[in-house]
Amino acid sequence: MRVLFEFSGPVPEHVLGMNFKKRIIRRKSNGFELDVVTEDPAIIDAVSRSENCLLYRIVQEVPPFESPDFGKITETVRLALDLFRQERYWESHVVLETVWRNSEGDMKSFLRGLILVASSQVHYQMGHMETAWSMYEKGKDMVMKSSYSKYFGMVVPEYFSYPLLLHSDLL
Q1: How far is Cα 45 from Cα 36, in angstroms, rounded to an integer?
Q2: Percentage above 70 pLDDT, the chain
């Protein structure tokens, strides 16, 4: 299962040495996020009791919507923006993909742009600055060229920054 841990400071060395199937560390403005895959509840318990560990969430896999209606898309974009404001960019990206996969036309382009903007923040958190900037520019252009940016009252800042705050009439 995939688990996200939030730390107020550096991830302790003993946690980094644990046997995870997958491990990604992302920097946040107020600490670090540890993204792991493990099937061992004892590991989850041990990490959650570690120094600086604030909380953890088990990530639920969400299948894509077969044919998302506009209401479902609006609800999903609102949730993604809320996650964005909490610097939970990876989760925002995952949520947006649930409606993007089966969307069409301008809506698909708009959602892809938001996904790229969220991904730019994830890459920044992992220290991949050039990738972050490149993804941001491409995503920003896709969002702002879409007619849906006006509908949602979406404003993507002209320049990359971290943490990025998106402005929308939805929130």
Answers
A1: 13
A2: 99
77 and 30 co-located in one domain: no
Q: Which of 109, 116, 120 is nearest to 73 (CA)?
A: 109
pLDDT at residue 171, as a whole number: 65
38 with 74, same domain: the answer is no
- Helices marked H in the chain: 13-16, 41-48, 70-85, 89-100, 105-125, 129-145, 147-151
> Residue 117: which domain range?
70-151
Kindly state whether residues 45 and 85 are assigned to the same domain. Answer: no
Alpha-carbon Rg for the chain in angstroms: 17
Our separate counts of H helices and E strands in the chain read: 7, 4
In a domain, 30, yes or no: yes
Residue 160: DSSP 8-state: -
Q: Do 116 and 140 fall within a single domain?
A: yes
Q: Structure pTM?
A: 0.87
- The reply to whether 74 and 53 lie within a common domain is no
Q: Tell me which residue of 127, 131, 126, 72 sits closest to 96, measured CA to CA.
A: 72
Distance CA 156, CA 60 (A): 28
